[in-house]
Amino acid sequence: MFQAIACPTRRALLDVLAQGERNVSDLVAALDVTQSAVSQQLAILKTAGLVGERAEGRFRYYRLRAEPLAAIDAWLGRYRGHVEQQLDALGRVLDDLPDEPTPPSPPTPRDRTPRRSRST
Question: Which of 12, 26, 27, 56 has the smallest set of CB atoms within 10 Å of its CB?
């Protein structure tokens, strides 16, 4: 399952399918990748159980099957408290740091003293 969602292209496909059922042509247009690439990635997502497929005439339509993602979410939920504690600790450290002084702004032409010309 994690290998199936590790690829950015496959995650993008899932994002598009989360908006509703699409055929391959729609997915190719949405992701701006080749039809071959979309078909290969869909095969992996189907094998993982993340995508369902139905035929209508000569077209195949794909839809998101989110149930397997719920299992991942439940597993990750066990670690959310730990992550939140770590982020809270980081926030406390950052809050205790002194504010950085604002760097001086560069001088404007009015601020500059005119140079004196040298006479030799």
Answer: 56
CA angle (113 as vertex; 111, 115 as ends), nearest 5: 150
Any idea where the domains of the chain sit in the sequence?
Answer: 2-65
Confirm whether pTM is higher than 0.85: no
The answer to whether 9 touches 37, Cβ cutoff 8 Å, is yes
Task: Write out the CATH class of domain 2-65.
Answer: mainly alpha
Do 23 and 62 touch, CB atoms closer than 8 A?
A: yes
The CA-based angle 9-7-46, given to 5 degrees, is 80
Confidence of residue 120 (pLDDT cuts 50, 70, 90): low
Q: Residues 78-115: pLDDT tens digits?
A: 998 888 999 999 999 988 888 877 777 777 766 566 66
Q: What is the DSSP letter of 112?
A: S
